[in-house]
Amino acid sequence: MLNYLDALRLIENEFQLLPKNIIEVTLLDAIGLTLAENIYADVDLPAFNYSSMDGFVIKLSDEIKEWNITGEISAGNFKEYPIDSFSAIRIMTGGRIPSDADTVIPIEDVIESGNNLTLRNEVIIKQFQNIRYKGEDLKAGSAALTSGTLITPHNVSLAAACGKTKLNVYQKLTFGILATGDELIDISETPGEDKVRSSNPYSLLAVINEMKQLPVNLGIVKDRKELLHNAVSSFLNSELDVLMTSGGVSVGKYDYLKDVFKESGIETIFWRVNIQPGKPLFFGKYVNGNKIKLVLGLPGNPVSSFVNFTVFIKPAIQKYYGYESFDYYPAVLESSLKKNDSKRQFVRGKMRYDSNSKKYFAIESSTRSSGNLAGLGKANCLIVIPEDITSLNAGDLVECIRI
Length: 403
What we know:
Blueprint: H1 4-16, E1 22-26, E2 39-40, E3 50-51, E4 55-58, E5 66-73, E6 87-91, E7 103-106, E8 110-113, E9 116-119, E10 131-132, E11 143-145, H2 156-161, E12 166-170, E13 174-180, E14 184-185, E15 196-197, H3 200-210, E16 214-221, H4 225-236, E17 242-246, H5 257-263, E18 267-271, E19 275-276, E20 282-288, E21 291-298, H6 302-321, E22 328-333, E23 337-338, E24 344-354, E25 359-364, H7 373-378, E26 381-385, E27 391-392, E28 397-402
Parallel strand pairs: 5-6, 13-16, 13-17, 14-15, 17-21, 19-24, 22-25
Antiparallel strand pairs: 1-12, 2-11, 3-10, 4-6, 4-7, 5-9, 8-9, 18-20, 20-21, 22-28, 23-27, 24-25, 24-26, 26-28
Helix pairs in contact: 1-6, 3-6
């Protein structure tokens, strides 16, 4: 049976073989997508020298502490005032610096009296202070953002500052989500004595959508080989990139999916991973000419299904686009954890940040049952217990995956 890291590498490697199609989208539609081009500054950033605060701009002379106010410059309303060592120009944040000036004094560091300006006692002025200079951030022609960058609210303004109204980005991957099982009913129905609402697809649809990929709900299929064959065949003939099924891949009498995958021409890359929860994970691929499709058979238990996506598929998507994951945190364990096997366990936990120690702390938050959906809902992380560790004590450092 594969260990976690070997299984993860296999999934990541196969995801890398999926085609990367490039599309052009508007700047705001690019949020959450991955840049497929280099963006270069078309002008110097900043485009001119400007004041970084409200105050007075002068030509510094160490001996002079008093000035005459001879003009005013606000952002977007520049005037080239002549300036000498005895004159000061009132200037607002963003106002362009006159060519003969070299220093901005903050408004709180001076005393105004009519047109006279006096430096407050004990204030020290440094030449060039409070000025942002032309090209300080980027010179015209230099790279502002590089291909492979995840477009986020904090860097989209940089693309806008370079005059980009549209961006070339990698197209979203498309995921089909198929739930299987005679026991499943739609969430709008009331469960009978042996039925359960099909909640797994909604968790998977949500996390795929959160990753800015394109999820498609393929509905529920009963445990009938013919019906499963039809559903898998429909996927193989579709434009979807990845099929994710829920249930039907374990060793039960009616767990037909592995056989259906094989009979449909899907190559098995692995089945089962030495983890808990989520051990009966199937991973395979379908190749027809230059068409490649991936198939992931997730367990039917809701926690197992969610954990499989979080620890395998999410990092594979992130690596596919070439950006770093920020979901992993070192945390100090607040209570002991034990296990009695060689599996890598992903324990549902609660993680918090302590501002005094500047550390994260984590504690187990629910039972480890793979059917405990309520416990998953209360957790905000998965605490990792590696394969070769059976006991962790309070105070030990652990790896947590934010969920």
